[in-house]
Amino acid sequence: MIKRIDITISVLYITGIVAIGLWAGLRKKKKIAGNESNDYFLAGKTLKWPMIGLALFATNISCLHLVSLAQSGFDTGLLNGNFEWMAAFTLILLALFFVPFYMKSKVATLPDFLEKRYNKACRDWLAIISILSAIIIHIAFSFLAGGIVLKTLFGVNMYVSITVIALLTGLYTIIGGLRAVVVTESIQTIVLLTGAIIITAICYNKVGGWHGITNLLHTTGHMDKVSMLRPMGDKSGMSWMAVFLGYPVLGIWYWCADQTIVQRVLGAKDTNQARSGALFCGFIKILPVFIFVLPGLMAYVLAQKGLFDIHSVQHLDATGKMVTDTKGIYTLMITELVPTGLVGILVAALLSGLMSQISGALNSIATLVSYDLYKRHKPQTNDKQLVKAGRISAVAALVFSLGLLPLIDQYESLFNGINDIIAHIAPPISTVFLLGIFWKKASAKSAQYTLWLGSALGAGVFVINKIFPDSVIGQIPSMMMAFYLFIACGIMQISFSYYFPVHHTAESNTLYWKSPWEPLQDKGWKGVGNYKFLSALLLLVMVVLYSIFH
């Protein structure tokens, strides 16, 4: 059980974050009274690249990632680190191809961008899907992971702890807006990384370094655990082909077309700041494999050596066989391996991930509801009414997400559960965004029907998987299913575009690239901060890393 000094550190941290969030939001609001909604939802478009990059990472990495990536490291080794490293490639796409359009069109939301490129029906559909996905994926799953951790560490009822965290995070997010979210996320990223590095260093020293890991894995015949790219037919369902074909479908939606993530970019001071911020996040995304996934693998090695007691997370199954509930591995590592005092810092890191994920999602939901739903039906709405509507919607989202917890708690692995849902949501959205910016002939009607039919197809396949898991469809790994759905949606939109030819407006005629090289015409900053240099460097680093851990 966690000691009193560690509890004190954790409580002081939470109190400090709430105070800073309220100060950051309220301080700026007193200075700017003329454009309250722009300040609240987009931080007055004043964000610079370091804060954007840190906020992107903090919104992406939550308590769920710390817990589930360590679990995956214990179970399958470095394999799920692909979700972290592959993100670098989609962040390059965001910086090079998507950011210029988002900044040029001066949109506050991505559904707003779809209306400018296609039509209002596309905007409405994406707004609804984005709100639901933010509630389910970014808030409810994070709440569940946080509840499990706090219950394990403090012995507090899961729903009580979740409710308290929801109220505290909602307080500064709902009052302070995006600026409060980004300022607190920047701090939380530093705390989260510090905590993760501490436990990694402790495990690395205890396991005897890299040689200690590989020697044990070689002896036990599990060297595949240090491989990121698995052969075709691998039982994990994550072969190299599934990773390279399936992840981009998920990644383009998540990093380039999801309001919760991209809102940090939309608040950038200018295009160069936005591009550099996205690429900065790409470099930070290299770290999770080493500080989130690798500690789980080291815990496995320590357990095999008898240096890590996992009896508290073991139980007998229905057949009388001893099984390990690996969802509790990360919290067990904290209590078993970390000295008193540092435990409080690591708990603060877990709470950082939880609070930053939820605060980012709440702000994006408020923005979507206010701009894409409320103002559409009441165009005369003033700034104060718009902000009020956003705050009410954030409160409603919190309540709704709490109600979903019993349903999503049925997943054995939270990380697999979240990616399973994304794999069936992402394909139609990734399709209409990609074709929209790269293909002149992508028409409004084609995008509209692709979003409707593609979403229905994804939902249908998801239901079949759950009802008939042994069917042909049920046997397809979720990453490959995402790719197959993406191909189906691509065929749909291309076919519909010829049946319903495009009729560009003056605005939509400027929102696609005439050639793939056109976005590279912008010279950008001089020196090492140039977006072309950073993109090439990030690409080179990822190629080298994959060649080492193939």
Automatic annotation (TrEMBL):
Q: Quote one Gene Ontology molecular function term.
A: D-glucose:sodium symporter activity
Which InterPro entries does this chain map to?
Na/Glc_symporter_sf (IPR038377), Na/solute_symporter (IPR001734)
- This protein's major location comes to membrane
Question: Which Gene3D superfamilies does the UniProt record give?
Answer: Sodium/glucose cotransporter
Residue stretches spanning the membrane:
6-26, 47-71, 83-103, 124-150, 156-175, 187-207, 237-256, 277-303, 392-409, 421-439, 451-468, 480-500, 531-549
Entry GO terms, CC: plasma membrane
Its record classes its membrane topology as:
Multi-pass membrane protein
Quote the subcellular location field of this record: Membrane
- Keywords associated with the record: Membrane, Transmembrane, Transmembrane helix
NCBIfam families, per this entry? Answer: sss
Q: Which family does the UniProt entry place this protein in?
A: Belongs to the sodium:solute symporter (SSF) (TC 2.A.21) family.
Q: What is this protein called?
A: Sodium/solute symporter
